[in-house]
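Progress against Task 2.4 (sequence-to-structure conversion) is shown through the following example record, which the project officer requested during the mid-term review.
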Amino acid sequence: MIYKIKQEDLNALDHITELDLEGIVDDSVNLDELEDNLREAISEVEVIYYDNAMEFLSDEDQSLQESTAIAVEYGYKLEDIDSETLATLLKQERMNEELPRLLELLED
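Structure tokens generated for the chain above:
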């Protein structure tokens, strides 16, 4: 199945556009498979390097409250988290938040 999406609509999805959407969309047969493929791709996203993590966290969660809440929800202990882990968890959360809108745009 071929999915089309307007560039201006895609631009509104800040975080999820970092995925290789073209490859994921082209490989999907139906909307359910597309959603599964997108969720899998999101789960593989990582923020690497301290500078990248700190930049992302300063833009998205300066107080670190949201990212630490996500870490606690996933069972992380304080000694097991660092800036890259927090940034990765938050980035994945942001992407998952945008996923329903992307699927809606693709379905239309």
